[in-house]
Amino acid sequence: MRENLVDVIYSFDEEYRYEIYKENADLYYVWLQKKVHDDYMRDEMEFVSWSDIKDYIHKTDCLEKAYGIGNEGLRCLGGNYVTVKEIKYKWLGNFAPNISCEDKKEHITSSGNYLWHIFSWNYVEAIVGDKAKKEFERLRTKRMYSFNQFDNDEEIIKEYDELTPDFIENELVDDIYLFDQSFKWTYVNTHESMCGPYFFMIKTK
Hints:
DUF4275; DUF4275 domain-containing protein
């Protein structure tokens, strides 16, 4: 069965995943699995079938529907149900941990300000402009996540695969914040032509 495996979609916390299989030319199906820890092998774990039920998808756009079922299923389970409000706090705390509360309130979190002001006010030194685009293109991360500055706090973060700077600039909304699952890097496209885009990666010690 593994030879028919097309892709695997992981939840944000990687506790669940959907495997997408191709059964024939016109038929795909998704299979939900959950991570379990092996009591006998302390640091190892594996994914096991969460259900014997397979969701079958037909017609020409079946692969797109398979991804849709997988992503929505993960969100419904809670494994991928991470709200914009939660992520905004995590994004700011992770990429700008040393900014004082006073500076955050004055330049970043208060009404009329933007989270990307951590870069434009030089609280955090980021790569800017075309150099930022090149750094983003060099990433080997296929799966990434995003939120928009004006997303409702209770909305769900969005998931993307292999975006390009041109697509982000032309097809996605302004003031979008992209990041990897581990929050090692972030790429921000702003609404200001003179500000950004910004790329920042946390240096590993």
